[in-house]
Predict the 3D structure of the following.
Amino acid sequence: MQGRLIYLMGPSGSGKDSLLQAARASLEAHGCRFARRVITRSAESVGEDALGVTPDEFERLQGEGAFALSWRANSLAYGIPREIDDWLSAGQDVLINGSRGHLEAARQRYPQLLAILLQVDEAVLRQRLLARGRETPEQIEQRLARSRKLQQEDRERTVILDNSGPLQQTVSRLLHLLDEARQCA
C-alpha cells in the first residue's frame, strides 16, 4: 500500500512550524512521518527542525541525488530528503513543509499528494513577520505581495486551512481534514 504525501505550505509567518510542532504527537501516533528539510541557513534562524547547510553543501547533496524534492525561494535553497520515497513505499503517510511555488513540480512527482495551504489574515501575517524581525519592512511587503499572488493559484486542488485563530483549533481542523481525506482516498 502506498502512503500519501501531505504537502503543507503557506507564507512565511503563517505558523507552519508551530502547527507541525503542535500536531506532531497526534500525527506520529497515526503513523505519519515528518521529513526534516535541508535549508541553506542555520536551523536556529529558521525556527524549525531543519538541517542548515552551506550553499556548497546543498549543491553537493543535490548533485548526489540526496533530495526527493528541492527548490529555491527567498534567496534560499530547500531540499526534502529522498528517504520520503522509502516511507511512502512502505505505506506511511509523510508530511512535508513545502513551497507554494514548487507545488506543481511536487504534483508531477507525487500525483496523489494532498496539498494543504495554511493561510492567515494578511494583517496578522504582517504583524508576525514584523515581530520576527528577520526582514526589512520592504522585504515583508514583497513576501505579502507574493503570498497574495500564490493564494489565487490552483485553489480547486488545494485544501485551505485557516490559522488566524487559536493554534489548537487549527490542529483539530488539520487532524479532521487528514482523517476525512483518508476516507475519500
The longest strand covers residues 67-73.
